[in-house]
Specification:
The protein is built from 3 helices and 9 strands; from the N terminus they run H-H-E-E-E-E-E-E-H-E-E-E. It is an alpha+beta fold and about 160 residues long.
Length: about 160
């Protein structure tokens, strides 16, 4: 091999080692210990009860190696509607990484949008105009594109914490 070829091969190997290979999010990460409901967010500025959709979960590293630099985006949508109804963003892990087979601490995502009403919170959940919400979870590994991971239907139950 000539010097140029060796240099290019070495450079490619160095870059690949430093950046890591693309992560197949669907097989690498699993959403576990899911809990969802409608969080009692207190009162809005008009004194009405406010409930916001909330999802808590953990991510498990299903690979045989450490995974680092993960971000997570949750997009809330009312069922049968295309428009996004809120979102939440969190950094999952940075340089510290998530070891093979390990699980993250519990993460919690809640929408900034929700339902308000003068009736009791329990009555709000059973109101005829209440529309259920789903959260779609997207993961970004390093500088890769956002990739769909999973979705969770928010349970119609009241959360106080």
């Amino acid at each position: 091999m000539g010097f140029r070829v060796k240099f290019v091969v070495s450079l490619v190997a160095f870059v690949a080692a430093g950046c890591g290979l693309a992560l197949d999010v669907q097989s690498a990460l699993q959403v576990t210990q899911v809990s969802s409901g409608w969080f009692d967010a207190g009162f809005d500025n008009l004194g009405r009860n406010k409930l916001v959709p909330t999802v808590s979960f953990r991510l498990e590293n299903m690979t045989q190696s450490e995974v680092s630099y993960l971000q997570l985006l949750g997009k809330f949508r009312r069922q049968n509607e295309e428009e996004e109804w809120g979102n939440a963003f969190i950094r999952v892990v940075g340089t510290e990484g998530l070891e093979a087979g390990q699980v993250t601490d519990t993460m919690r995502l809640e929408s900034e949008r929700g339902y308000t009403g003068e009736q009791s919170r329990a009555e709000m959940l059973s109101h005829g105009d209440f529309v259920d919400v789903t959260i779609e979870l997207f993961v970004k590994h390093r500088a890769e594109q956002w990739t769909y991971l999973d979705s969770v239907n928010v349970e119609r139950r009241l959360l106080t914490q």
